Amino acid sequence: MDHYYLESDTKITDCTQKTSTRLVYDSSFLLVDNFVWAGSLNRTIHILDSDTSTVVSKLSNLEDDPSVLALGKLEHQKVVWSLLIQGLLIAWNPLTRERELTITLPVSNLPKNHPFICYSMAVLEDYLWIGTNLDMMLVLRIENDKKWSVVKEVSVGNTGKNESQVKCVAVSNNGLIWCSTKIPNQLTVFDAKTFEKRYTFENKEETNKPVNVILPVNNQIWCGTKSGKILIFEDKEIKEKELKPLKIANAHEDTIRTLLLLKKDDKSHSLVISGSGSRDGCAAVWNPLDLKHF
User: Fold this and answer.
1) In DSSP terms, which residues pair with 230 in a beta bridge?
2) What number of H helices and E strands is found in the chain?
3) What gap in Å lies between CA 22 and CA 158, rounded to an integer?
């Protein structure tokens, strides 16, 4: 069996062959029971034992590189959803590691010579919200007998030029859908039941520094940006349409690639871990109660 280890810059390295493969995105990194699923740039999902950091299986020869991995359910059974970059969605049985369902995402009115790219995905019950590069999110419903349907194309951008790349999507603890776009550099919040736009926040001061990762933390939403800042919002109903950050933390000197919620065994308050790119090369641990880091 080949031996691998995971480096801090999310690169999978084969110690025996002295070769390495980078992850496509940090969102292609998922803990499933006692195993880590990691999607890489060679059209492969590596499955590692989290205790030994040893690769126990590979899902190779995929149709494309995986951009997102997420847990969900199919016919009341747990599955791992893998979203490939150019719009193929695969449900995997986490025990047998066999395909349970493969979906080719339909695209309407695709401009000529314009690629279809899927950057992000969030799972809420039987619905999958998929962020694309076409000013919109596709919302799929997974039904019985492994049937599925597109229930909505949710418009995100306002440019009408297919410029709004939906970089990340997350479900808040209040059941709202948060997403970030690059053009414009904006956060948008949708009602998951009505698909209506509820709130927005446009970061006009940093037009080229979009939010890379969104993490629900208790009654807050933490957003890590390309500039190294963490934007913290309250996850609650407000009367205004424009969101205002509760706090902006200058967390890192490079892109924030990862935000993780660390739950303590003694059921006391949780901690948040932020990880940055190579220019900063460090992680920070935050107390969400006083918004200070250790």
Assistant:
1) 224, 249
2) 0, 27
3) 33
CATH number at residue 170: 2.130.10.10
Q: Is the peptide bond before 216 cis (omega within 30 degrees of 0)?
A: no
276 in a structural domain: no
Which phi-psi region, left, alpha or beta, contains residue 150 (left: φ > 0; alpha: ψ -120 to 50)? beta
Tell me, yes or no, whether 283 lies in a domain.
no
Total domains, the chain: 1
Question: What pTM, to 2 d.p., does this model score?
Answer: 0.85
Q: In whole angstroms, give the CA distance from residue 37 to residue 69.
A: 8
Tell me if 29 sits within 8 A of 10, measured CB to CB: yes
CA–CA separation, 223 vs 187, rounded Å?
9
Pairing of strands 44-49, 54-59: antiparallel
Q: Return per-residue pLDDT of the chain as tens, 294 residues.
A: 233 333 334 455 544 445 555 555 556 788 899 898 988 888 999 898 888 878 889 999 999 989 899 999 998 899 999 999 989 999 999 999 999 999 999 887 777 777 888 889 999 999 999 999 888 899 999 998 899 999 999 988 665 566 678 889 999 988 999 999 887 889 999 999 999 999 999 887 776 788 989 999 988 999 999 999 999 999 888 877 888 999 998 888 888 888 988 876 655 678 898 888 777 778 888 888 877 665
Q: Is 152 contained in some domain?
A: yes
Residue 213: give the domain boundaries.
Answer: 4-256
Per DSSP, the residues of 194-213 read T--EEEEEE-TT-TT--EEE
Helix (H, G, I), strand (E, B) or coil at 284: strand
Q: Does residue 172 form part of some domain?
A: yes
